[in-house]
From TrEMBL, chain A:
Chain residues that bind heme c: C136, C139, H140
InterPro entries: Cyt_c/b562, Cyt_c_II, Cyt_c_prime
GO cellular component assignments: periplasmic space
Pfam families: Cytochrom_C_2
Keywords attached to this entry: Electron transport, Heme, Iron, Metal-binding, Transport
Taxonomic path: Bacteria, Pseudomonadati, Pseudomonadota, Gammaproteobacteria, Steroidobacterales
Keyword Electron transport assigned: yes
Protein name per Swiss-Prot or TrEMBL: Cytochrome c
Post-translational modification: Binds 1 heme group per subunit.
Species in which this protein is naturally found: Steroidobacter agaridevorans
GO MF assignments: electron transfer activity; heme binding; iron ion binding
A GO BP annotation: electron transport chain
């Protein structure tokens, strides 16, 4: 019985050890860097969409930027799943994970809907969804440390 | 208005986006235009920085440092963004990090951008079909340095 338990314990440790590389994060800095690449890319994409919608950018690129926003939003939450404080992320991200992840899922869903409407009904229709699709400030006010940007 | 060297100004970017969405509905995408020269510089800066972030993310993925599952998404964002880059440089507006050579040697610059789009498309296709293993050997085809050495103002 004891031998079986030891074997099971060793098996679990080995299993966890083998699974870690599949998760892919090698160290904390990589985790922080990766999520920062994603969030900064989102910032730039949001800025260009803002330029276009205010008549200060090339309108023919509207759908392209809606598509990239939706794609990037779809991987954003995952980049925060590893609980690694640092960068501009406040500890509240993980302390209030249920709320944070709910907001990020909504962001991904609504930006995907915006891009879909843009493809299927045209970007003028999709533009009506922009404000709802990109609720950046509401989330940043709670979960981002402005001093660390 | 975004200011040069501070393109991530959140206090102006988000309100601008908010009212712009409302104003936009009535405009129905009339023209390909920029309001002024600073808008041109800001737009192309955002485009190039987006590509920089995407390329960095892909590099991390190819080195096994972050989730491999994201590779197709990151590569597709890079492909789409590369596809709009030429529009960002078409107006001849000097400044930012772009050297005057961009427009002095437009044929060469433009050809290099076309090559970038082709390479990014190839990487995106490889990512969808073969994942990280297929992407890694192709990342060198996206080498930014060759073009930056000639056309970008070097940071001091």
């Amino acid at each position: 019985m004891i031998r079986a338990s030891k074997a099971a314990a060793v098996g679990i440790i080995l299993g966890v050890t083998m699974l870690l590389p599949m998760v892919g994060h090698t160290d904390d800095k990589d985790v922080v860097d990766y999520r920062q690449h994603i969030m900064k890319s989102l910032e730039h994409q949001t800025a260009v969409l803002g330029q276009i919608l205010s008549g200060a950018g090339p309108a023919e690129n509207t759908l392209a930027h809606m598509e990239t926003l939706a794609l990037t939003a779809s991987v954003a939450l995952k980049s925060f799943e590893a609980k690694v404080p640092g960068g501009a992320a406040k500890p509240e991200v993980w302390k209030d994970w249920a709320d944070f992840s709910k907001r990020m899922k909504e962001f991904a869903e609504k930006s995907a809907e915006m891009a879909k409407v843009g493809r299927e009904q045209g970007v003028d229709q999709a533009a009506m969804l922009v404000i709802e699709a990109l609720p950046c400030k509401g989330c940043h006010d709670v979960y981002r440390d402005e001093k660390k940007i | 208005m975004f200011s040069e060297g501070n393109v991530l100004n959140r206090t102006t970017a988000l309100p601008r986006l908010a009212w712009a969405g409302i104003a936009f509905v009535g405009t129905l995408l009339p023209i390909s235009s920029f309001a002024d020269d600073q808008d041109v510089r800001d737009y192309r800066s955002h485009i190039m920085k987006t590509m920089g972030e995407q390329f960095a993310a892909l590099n991390q993925i190819s080195k096994g440092k972050v989730p491999a599952a994201d590779v197709a998404t990151q590569a597709e964002v890079l492909r789409i963004t590369a596809g709009v880059a030429k529009v960002a440089f078409t107006p001849k507006v000097l400044g930012g990090e772009a050297k005057p050579e961009v427009w002095d040697k437009w044929d060469d610059f433009s050809k290099r951008l076309d090559e970038l789009v082709a390479a990014a498309t190839d990487v995106s296709k490889a990512a969808k079909q073969g994942g990280v293993a297929a992407v890694t050997p192709k990342l060198s085809s996206l080498s930014c340095k060759g073009c930056h050495d000639v056309y970008r103002v070097q940071k001091k």
